[in-house]
Write a structure and sequence with these properties.
The structure holds two protein chains of two kinds. In chain A, the strands form five sheets. Chain A has a six-stranded mixed beta sheet, with helices on both faces. In chain A, strands 16-19-20-13-21-22 form a six-stranded mixed beta sheet, with helices on both faces. Chain A has helices spanning 44-52, 76-81, 99-103, 118-131, 147-160, 177-192, 204-210, 235-243, 304-311, 336-341, 351-355, 362-367, 382-395, 412-425, 442-457, 469-475, 498-505, 509-512; strands at residues 4-15, 18-29, 33-37, 61-66, 69-70, 84-87, 165-169, 196-200, 213-218, 221-227, 261-271, 279-289, 293-298, 318-326, 329-331, 344-347, 375-376, 379-380, 430-434, 461-466, 478-483, 486-492. Chain A folds into two domains: 4-243, Rossmann fold (3-Layer(aba) Sandwich); 261-343 and 428-512, Rossmann fold (3-Layer(aba) Sandwich). Chain A contains 18 helices and 22 strands. In chain A, helix 4 (118-131) packs across helix 5 (147-160). The longest helix of chain A has 16 residues, at 177-192. By secondary structure, chain B is mainly α. Chain B has a two-stranded antiparallel sheet. Classes of the chains: A alpha/beta, B mainly alpha. At the A-B interface, helix 10, helix 11, strand 18 and helix 13 of A face helix 8, helix 10, helix 11 and helix 12 of B.
């Protein structure tokens, strides 16, 4: 008889008009790392919100048995009191407060007078930081630390609450490989100390690496729970469960038809906007030809996004030098409007904060960058706009009942398609796509790759920035590697392997430091 | 979609938009009942227009400022300064009326450009810039007027706010011209609705059923013509109503249909995303503040004409009425949301309430209590409604 720390039975949760969860069951054994997999919108986050009391008891149907008792959580405080702590994808830390203040926020260590006992706070925080393997001063403001370290602080915060069941929603989505490895190692360590973890993730290799068992959810139903120790539990098996069909190829086929050079960047150098003298992009040169998909591989902090954003209308950095050529002619890229006119488009890595107006409808998001095409003498033709938006909804398969839905209500993959529509509508010759598939599910990824292939088939040039090497290897013709702001290599895809790229991506580290 | 479905949708899914109109009708009905229909009398309705027109003009500019994610606390002081400058020219120096108007508009534009410069190009939050402006322009108004009130302007300057078109086409105890103007407006409305429907059909979009459209036009037409009949039975067509109508129509078009308007919504909704989509964020911010200055100038001229004098304290607290009108009318504090018609209805709700409470003989203090609560409840309703429809993510 296995010891279940948690059993969720027959959970059904309805929102007006939608059944988000339908008779979902989940059994978690004590001391295991349990992964939950599913496409975006499958109901994973909703299930975790039911578990943690965000949706209070009575708001859903079904039973939660936790530690052998029927749990009736009315708020997140109830579930935390029982040792269930959820760490959301968007970290909930206050950037201006110190590490120790964040760890004990809402749970302050008080002295006899009721005032905060700072010595105790900081010394306990230091112990917790040691447990998660973070060597930082507890009085450092959290905003000065990177995302990877902030994630560890969240875990330290959970440990301070005597956590028994730790729930992590996409913990590594924003982390680079090294930070991810560190985090996964920490989870293993916590497991040895008897802490049970539930991890929601899209990264199948991580799941294969760390999870003991995996529950797959699709369209609000439990599909199956598979034991990862069983050798037949391959990534392909999980993908099949998630999408409900065999995904034979994760990357669509394409026969490259490469033409003339469209864009060439020479000696591009960018300085940090606030830290005077710090070089973020150092003498970078690259080019892309029509019909070609060029990848830019680099670890977090290598300057990938900084390169792209500084190129796109000097939207990042200061003291920018270097030259940009299109079809051999030098062009100016000092403003975003100039770039759009010159047929350059840039789809950002962070669609929610930089890419979309979430409160505005899909239609107006699609037309945002190409509005001049819909306007005569400053007046917008609303009917034509609707027609254009409907066309993109159809051709890019944006799943929404109509284009008047606020963009914020769409799932990640569909939001990404809206961003792509916006830029394709500006009729660019070069598209720079920064992490085009971050945080979106396998099925939508495949669709995004198909769209990229269609664009290059039309003779456009595409630059893809990505931290997922298999993705770059799957879709690119040529890959540049970026390390510490320098281009350290240029590899045709036929000669590229993950190992080779990774070696180039970490090159010259010692010299720069 | 049948008519019943359309009406149902009006009261359910579109509650956010239509809620404000329903509340407006309810408030009008309430005060009509409490004042034995005195509030709907010809004279009172005319006075209502004359009395609140300048708040509505300010609210037009203010809603655009709020959509862009800013706020303007200085408009009351600008009203005072504009009045002061025009009075010095027209009353003290005996210049013609149009010089006063031109100067007033120029002062408004200059104020707008000044504040726009600090907000857009220096990057100081509008709250701070206009808080400074509130003190600055109030002080300047006092300096210009030597701290005494200056008047009277005399005609024709005062006609802006007190003049009527009456008797142009005759009529027996009522002004036929007013009725003709309003009838033409209803026809234009019906025609534009029909045109919009036809062009939607040409683009193969869904349209409301024809009987629903007819019903809508008939209801709107009836209300408008009833209102016209009231005006025609009093002093005729107020000039200031014409100014107001032109501004409302023009700015509704600008916000909904122009590239400038769309860029305002875009930058209010997500400033960075707008900048990365090629919106010239600085210039749009500058334009929004400049426009607010000009409209504050218009409001200042209307208010001075109505008082027939310029006072150093004129326009005190107007900014709060204008801001309240926008928020009651559904604008969001965080920017990106709001409409000119919404702000107008919000302003009219405040106007009808103040006016109704005055007619009921209520004192100023309880009036303020009621107005404060209505503002709070209106925004609370909006928040509740958003949460209910799950728009917040």
């Amino acid at each position: 008889m296995t010891d279940h720390i948690l059993e969720m039975r027959g959970i059904t949760k309805t929102f007006p008009g939608v059944k988000a969860l339908q008779d979902v069951s989940l059994e978690v054994e004590r001391g295991e790392i349990h992964a939950i997999c599913g496409e975006n919108g499958a109901g994973k986050s909703t299930l975790m919100k039911v578990l943690s009391g965000v949706y209070p008891y009575g708001d859903y149907e079904g039973d939660i048995v936790y530690e052998g008792e029927h749990a009736r959580f009315h708020s997140i405080n109830d579930s935390e009191a029982k040792g269930i702590v959820i760490i959301h994808q968007e970290l909930a830390l206050v950037p201006y407060l110190s590490v120790s203040e964040n760890i004990f926020l809402g749970n302050e260590r008080r002295g006899r007078t009721g005032m905060i006992d700072w010595n105790r706070t900081n010394s306990e925080a230091a112990k917790l930081l040691a447990r998660v393997g973070l060597h930082e001063n507890p009085t450092t403001p959290v905003g000065l630390l990177g995302v990877g370290k902030q994630q560890l602080i969240e875990i330290a915060k959970a440990l301070s609450k005597e956590v028994k069941l730790l729930i992590l929603d996409e913990p590594t989505a924003a982390l680079n490989d090294i930070d991810s490895q560190h985090l996964l190692g920490l989870l293993r360590q916590l497991k040895e100390h008897g802490i049970t973890s539930i991890m929601i993730s899209h990264k199948l290799n991580e799941i294969a690496d760390i999870a003991d068992r995996t529950t797959i959810i699709r369209d609000g139903r439990t599909i199956e729970t598979i034991d990862m120790r069983d050798p037949s539990s391959t990534q392909e098996r999980i993908i099949k469960g998630m999408v409900g069909r065999d995904l034979e190829h994760r990357y669509p086929e394409r026969t490259p038809e490469i033409g003339d050079e469209v864009l060439r960047v020479e000696d591009w150098t960018v300085h940090h906007p606030t830290q005077i003298g710090r070089v973020v992009v150092d003498n970078a040169s690259f080019s892309v030809r029509s019909g070609e998909v060029v990848g830019i591989a680099g670890l977090m902090g290598a300057g990938r996004t900084e390169l792209a954003m500084s190129l796109f209308g000097h939207s990042y950095g200061r003291d920018i030098t270097g030259r940009v050529f299109k079809y051999g002619q030098e062009i100016k890229t000092r403003s975003v409007a100039e770039c759009i006119q010159n047929g350059i488009a840039y789809a950002t890595e962070d669609r929610k904060t930089y890419g979309l107006n979430l409160i505005e409808d899909v239609k107006r998001n699609i037309s945002a960058a190409g509005l001049h095409q819909l306007a005569r003498r400053g007046w917008v033709n609303g009917n034509e706009e609707l027609k254009v938006a409907e066309e993109y909804r159809g051709s890019l398969n944006i799943k929404t009942p109509h284009v008047l839905v606020p963009a914020g209500k769409l799932s990640g993959g569909n939001q990404q398609k809206v961003v792509l529509s916006k830029w394709i509508y500006t009729n660019p010759d070069v598209l720079i796509l920064d992490e085009p598939t971050r945080g979106i599910d396998v099925g939508a990824k495949y669709e995004i790759y198909t769209i990229i292939n269609r664009l290059v088939a039309e003779g456009k040039a595409v630059v893809v920035i990505s931290s997922e090497l298999p993705e770059l290897l799957g879709i690119c013709d040529r890959i540049y590697t970026l390390a510490f702001g320098r281009i350290t290599g240029e590899v045709p895809v036929a000669e590229a392997t993950q190992e080779k790229l990774m070696e180039l991506m970490t090159k010259e580290k010692e010299q720069v430091r | 979609m049948s008519i019943v479905d359309s009406i149902k949708e009006l009261f359910t899914t579109n509650l956010r938009q239509s809620g404000i109109y329903i509340a407006f009708v309810a408030i009008i009905a309430f005060f009509a009942w409490r004042t034995d229909f005195l509030s709907l009398g010809p004279q009172n309705l005319t006075n209502l227009i004359l009395q609140y027109s300048y708040i509505l003009i300010l609210a037009i500019g203010m809603v655009i400022v709020i959509i862009a994610g800013h706020i303007d606390l200085s408009v009351g002081s600008v009203v005072g300064l504009v009045g002061g400058v025009s009075a010095v020219l027209v009353v003290r120096n005996g210049m013609p009326w149009w010089v006063g108007i031109l100067a007033g508009l120029l002062v408004g534009a200059a104020v707008g450009a000044w504040q726009g410069f600090w907000v857009a190009f220096v990057g100081i939050p509008a709250f701070i810039v206009t808080l400074a402006g509130m003190l600055l322009f109030r002080g300047l108004a006092g300096l210009v007027l030597n701290n005494i009130s200056l008047g009277p302007y005399g005609e024709p300057f005062t006609l802006i706010a007190q003049g009527f078109e009456n008797g142009f086409l005759g009529g027996h105890g009522y002004d036929a011209f007013t009725l003709v103007v309003f009838a033409l407006a209803v026809v234009a409305y019906a025609w534009s609705q029909w045109r919009a429907r036809q062009s939607r059909l040409a683009y193969q979009q869904s349209v409301q059923p024809l009987p629903m459209l007819v019903l809508q036009v008939v209801v709107v037409g009836a209300v408008v013509m009833w209102f016209a009949w009231r005006l025609a039975n009093d002093r005729g067509l107020p000039y200031v109503l014409v100014i107001l109508a032109v501004l409302i129509i023009a700015y509704t078009m600008v916000t909904q249909r122009s590239v400038f308007g769309r860029h305002v919504y875009a930058l209010g909704g997500n400033r960075t995303a707008a900048a990365l989509s090629g919106v010239k964020v600085k210039w749009i911010n500058f334009g929004v503040m400049l426009n607010m200055g000009v409209l504050a100038g218009v409001a200042g001229l209307v208010f001075s004409a109505r008082s027939n004098a310029a006072q150093p304290g004129a326009g005190n607290m107007f900014e709060l009425d204008a801001i309240a009108a926008c928020f009651i009318g559904g604008a969001a504090v965080t920017g990106g949301v709001g409409t000119v018609p919404g702000a107008m209805v919000g302003g009219l709700i405040m106007a009808v309430m103040s006016n109704g409470m005055q007619l009921m003989g209520m004192e100023t203090s309880p009036q303020q209590v009621v107005k404060g609560l209505v503002l709070l409840l209106a925004v609370a309703f909006d928040v509740w409604n958003k949460r209910r429809s799950g728009a917040v993510r």
